[in-house]
Amino acid sequence: MGQSLQSIASNYPQIDFHFYNSSALNITDLQNCKTVFSAIQPDFCINAAAYTAVDKAESEPEKAHSINVTGAENLAKTCKEFDAVLIHISTDFVFDGNASKPYTEEDIPDPTGVYGQTKLDGEKIIQQSWEKHLIIRTSWVYSQFGNNFMKTMLRLGAERDSLSVVNDQIGTPTNAVDLAEVLVKIILTVDKNLPSSIFHLPSKIFNFSNEGQCSWYDFAKKIFEINKIKIDLQAIPTSSYPTPAKRPSFSVLDKTKIKTAFGVEIKDWEESLK
Predict the structure, then answer these.
(1) Which band of pLDDT confidence, cut at 50, 70 and 90, is reported for residue 80?
(2) Which of 4, 12, 114, 245 shows the smallest number of beta carbons within 10 Å?
(3) How many distinct structural domains can be found in the chain?
(4) Annotated catalytic residue: which of 51, 103, 115, 217?
(5) Residue 272 lies in a domain
(6) Which long-range contacts link 105-111 to residues 24+ away (Cβ below 8 Å)?
């Protein structure tokens, strides 16, 4: 996510971006956050840091909590001290995945694992700590950067003749560069309208993913198709691929609110994947 923002930063010369990795800005260290903010006095802070190893979180709950909850709280407190708007990235994993229609921002979260619970706790602590925040829930994030499903499929496609992927978990892939563009659009919109009425909304949570929906199997199939990779791809049920953390079986997000509030146009996931 951070690298995706970095890749588009030069398109927005009106914004003075500062990028930090976890050693330069350790969000689990409140004093470190304050030192960095003191040096640059930011108007906005995008928190692209998270513990996202869903299965590993089950055996490393303290580490997940430290980054996803304490880290979020430290940034919220620091943003409050320096009067900066906090834009925090959250996840579809705050839901149990038992819905049959896309989740809205008003649906009641009910995470099933440590990762989802820590992300939800992070949202709550931000809401309690600082009024000027926006929480963006997203899903199935991939890009040309970092480690993600698309890159794993391309690697496995080059190494193997056959592959099995689950076909009964439904969601929407999100191109991280599309998400980055939306975050910049939000910043430019809010900056124009400060003090913005948006901070007086009862809920400052917004959903963003690409449009459409698919299974992980459909996603993999499209990745191989676009890249003209010939592989024997088999669809399997989740029950055939047990993992330490339970995955939501349906986690499509409704994007009506973000489209209305910020005039966002959203690409279909297949178009964006290409």
Answers:
(1) very high
(2) 12
(3) 1
(4) 115
(5) no
(6) 105/137, 105/203, 105/205, 105/206, 105/207, 105/254, 105/257, 106/203
